[in-house]
Fold this sequence. Notes:
Blueprint: E1 4-5, H1 6-12, E2 16-18, E3 24-25, E4 29-30, E5 41-43, H2 56-61, E6 66-69, E7 79-81, H3 85-102, E8 107-112, H4 117-128, E9 134-135, H5 146-151, E10 160-164, H6 172-180, E11 184-187, H7 195-198, H8 201-214, E12 220-224, H9 228-231, E13 241-245, E14 252-260, E15 263-269, E16 275-280, H10 286-300, H11 305-314, E17 324-327, E18 333-336, H12 343-358, E19 362-367, H13 377-390, E20 395-399, H14 404-412, E21 419-423, H15 426-436, E22 441-446, H16 453-463
Parallel strand pairs: 4-5, 5-6, 6-7, 8-10, 8-11, 9-10, 11-12, 12-13, 13-14, 18-22, 19-20, 19-22, 20-21
Antiparallel strand pairs: 1-3, 2-7, 14-15, 15-16, 17-18
The structure holds adenosine-5'-triphosphate and magnesium ion.
Amino acid sequence: MIEIRLSELASVLQGTLIGDEDASVTSTVETDSRLISPGSLFFAKPGEDADGHDFVSDAIKHGAIAAVVERQLPDQINQIVVQDSVKALGLLAAWLVSELRSRGNIQVVGITGSNGKTTTKNMLREILSKVGPTTAPIESYNNHVGAPISILRADAQTQFLIVEMGAKGLGSIDYLARIASPDVGVILKVGLAHVGEFGGIEKTATIKGELAGAMQPSGKLVLNCDDSLVRKMKEISKAPVVWFGTDAEANYRAEDITLTKDGTSFTMCWPDGQKETITLKIIGDFHVMNALAAAAAAELLGASKKQILDGLESMELAERWRMQRMVRPDGVTIINDAYNASPDSMKAALQTLAQLGRLGSRTVAVLGHMAELGELSVAEHDAIGRLVVRLNISQLVVVGDEAKLIHMGASQEGSWDGESQFFSTIDEALEYLRGILSQGDTVLVKSSKSANLRFLGDRLMEAAE
Ligand SMILES: Nc1ncnc2c1ncn2[C@@H]1O[C@H](COP(=O)(O)OP(=O)(O)OP(=O)(O)O)[C@@H](O)[C@H]1O
Ligand SMILES: [Mg+2]
């Protein structure tokens, strides 16, 4: 954040200031009173579990210069009363971006897509940090609250601002795109993530496409040319398009993608015709697509090929619980990818597991349910079970009643060298797994967040110690 007087702040937030007009915000903007430091601004946001208004006095105690509130509080507190504090947060983020832009120092990149946003964001952060001061969201802060909060971490030094844009229905990406007004927009893919919530893949495409529609002619739009729905977004973009993918048309193209137990390597074909081998420490051939997108955006923003290469190759981890690989002392490899799961990311992870199987591992898939699929839920869970059989994974372990259809799908798919087991609880599954795992096995753990299998993955790591 940059310094702003409370009187100006009130006008930016379209609110009413009660208190000291001449005081200024000199530190961060927070919605969590525990993070307040002297000079911070506190946003009292009514949340699902708690109401920020109950924490205003705590924020003031920690040194907040003022609070943004929806209900007026006692007069001795500097406060800006607004109608909707979440909207006010968006107004402030938009103001900060335009203010920093008018000072001429900042370039903004916005990333959306059904899978890979956080991974791509982390890759870009790794690269751009080598070029100049870079502000990026922590974790997956990507919704109408998290994205503005992340943007507000930018300050006068920031040269690159990375914004992850998560979809929450029609208009949600447009809202974030207007706040951030990206110089470079990246659309990774349209898939089945949240499809139940949005009502079909076409609708999902429309929402992700809002970033394309919001781009200015002076910007650049980075699109996946392997994804037909993303491809079409060129038609609604005023900004010129740069393509990435494996298709011949791609400006940033990957060839010869190979997976080893230690990572993923590919030949990067740059727009100028040069070729180079890049080896990612992270596994999953789908991460090559994220790497291409990050490379394209980074080069457009001024990074050199060397900075891009070094950034991509030095990344140890896409993000916690995203294809997080750990080798136990007894030689069992655990891949914990249970932060979230959609049919696409489930398929991608299982294909990676099957590839590792072909390199000589016995493969074990420990799967839980995929949330937010609506009426597609039954068919998609069944299909995942059948896919496990078709990929000839050695052992399937399905965990949790909501995931049982995966086990049933596998059981009905026909003969197979492997076998499927179902357990209602994580503890039962863990007990079973402890008994069967041995040196050389590779175990993939994957589910939606609510199934909590990421903790099973963590406990499996401990199991052999
Ligand atoms: N290009 C891709 N295709 C398929 N799966 C992918 C791809 N990129 C990442 N994944 C997988 O998708 C899951 C989510 O990855 P990541 O956290 O990077 O995505 P995200 O778009 O930020 O998700 P969220 O919407 O939860 O913020 C992980 O399981 C990851 O391994
Ligand atoms: Mg994310």
